[in-house]
């Protein structure tokens, strides 16, 4: 490769349950790095572009650098099983604003099991918050166990919800067999500085060519609310093999995995 040829931007996924603070974390990363890095953001929402609008209104980046993907019924499908729309959005963003350093991709608010495909992102952050309860970190699952970074977010709320943050971080570290865990609050400058340093260190290894994208693994079986189902929803699993066939033959928003609907 000729000298000074820019490498592709680092693609960094941010996943986690609804409302744990994914958009806010992305806004925090943008605020702390926008002066020194060229950034872009892609959001995934089921039927709206609400997260993209929130980030544009936060004024952390030029609005054109924030793009929305509408995923249809199952947000995790667009970040794991058929990533075409997200890949195209990332490539468009990188072409339109070349060269970019980092593209942050936010998953749709989802349950505990959603993870990004390593074909879409180079590294991923999984976000929990203290308001979800101190024992969530112990429950494990692919994102909690094997994302590149687990964030225990909104630590400023811990005294109000009776959560022992050091204990929650210790439990998470055990569940993650020592992988990185960060206790974060957007109002705690020291924790924001740690998040910023983590992003910079991953970017540095990406640029050196030493960063290896990890696959946290397929989603565990999980429940989907569906008011047309007799029990108010259904449990389904993502069979990787079926997922591959689906990838080859169907648009990204059609869901065709094995599930327990009768
Ligand atoms: N106290 C406190 N509140 C926070 C923090 N970060 C985010 N929030 C609040 O938590 C709520 C949810 O934050 P979002 O960033 O929208 O969460 P999200 O995970 O992107 O939500 P979805 O996209 O709906 O899944 C908002 O009211 C935020 O203001 C934090 O560090 N401390």
TrEMBL record:
Predominant place of localization: cytoplasm
- Asked whether the keyword GTP-binding is assigned, the reply is yes
Domain (CobW/HypB/UreG nucleotide-binding): residue spans on this chain: 13-179
Q: Name one Pfam family in it.
A: cobW
Identify one Gene Ontology CC term for this UniProt entry: cytoplasm
The biased composition feature labelled Basic and acidic residues covers: 236-248
Q: Per the record, which residues fall in region Disordered? A: 208-262
Give a GO molecular function annotation for the protein: nickel cation binding
Name one process (GO BP) from the record.
Answer: urea catabolic process
> By its UniProt entry, which Gene3D superfamilies does this protein fall under?
P-loop containing nucleotide triphosphate hydrolases
Q: Which keywords belong to this entry? A: Chaperone, Cytoplasm, GTP-binding, Nickel insertion, Nucleotide-binding
> Which sites bind GTP?
16-23
Query: Where does this protein reside within or beyond the cell?
Result: Cytoplasm
Domain of life (superkingdom)? Bacteria
Q: Which SUPFAM superfamilies match?
A: P-loop containing nucleoside triphosphate hydrolases
Function recorded in the entry: Facilitates the functional incorporation of the urease nickel metallocenter. This process requires GTP hydrolysis, probably effectuated by UreG.
**Can you tell me which family this protein belongs to?**
Belongs to the SIMIBI class G3E GTPase family. UreG subfamily.
Check the record and name the HAMAP family matching this protein.
UreG
UniProt-listed PANTHER family: UREASE ACCESSORY PROTEIN G
Q: Would you tell me the protein name for this molecule? A: Urease accessory protein UreG
Q: What organism is listed for this UniProt entry?
A: Agromyces albus
* Gene that this polypeptide is encoded by: ureG
């Amino acid at each position: 490769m000729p000298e000074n040829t820019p490498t592709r931007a680092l693609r960094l996924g941010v996943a986690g349950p609804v409302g744990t603070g994914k958009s806010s974390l992305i806004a925090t990363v943008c605020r702390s790095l926008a002066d020194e890095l060229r950034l872009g953001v892609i959001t995934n929402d089921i039927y709206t572009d609400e997260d993209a609008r929130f980030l544009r209104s936060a004024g952390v980046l030029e609005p054109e650098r924030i793009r929305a993907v509408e995923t249809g019924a199952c947000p995790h499908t667009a970040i794991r099983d058929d990533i075409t729309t997200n890949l195209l959005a990332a490539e468009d963003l990188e072409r339109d604003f070349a060269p970019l350093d980092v593209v942050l991709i936010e998953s749709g608010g989802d349950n505990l099991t959603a993870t990004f495909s390593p074909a879409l992102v180079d590294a991923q952050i999984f976000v929990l918050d203290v308001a979800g309860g101190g024992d969530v970190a112990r429950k494990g699952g692919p994102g909690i166990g094997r994302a590149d970074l687990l964030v225990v977010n909104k630590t400023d709320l811990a005294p109000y919800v009776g959560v022992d943050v050091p204990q929650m971080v210790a439990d998470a570290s055990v569940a993650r067999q020592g992988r990185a865990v960060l206790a974060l609050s957007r109002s705690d400058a020291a924790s924001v500085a740690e998040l910023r340093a983590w992003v910079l260190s991953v970017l540095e290894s990406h640029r050196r060519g030493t960063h290896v994208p990890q696959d946290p693994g397929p989603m565990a079986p999980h429940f989907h609310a569906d008011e047309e189902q007799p029990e108010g929803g259904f449990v389904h699993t993502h069979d990787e093999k079926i997922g591959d066939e689906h990838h080859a033959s169907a648009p990204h928003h059609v869901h065709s995995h094995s599930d327990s609907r009768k």
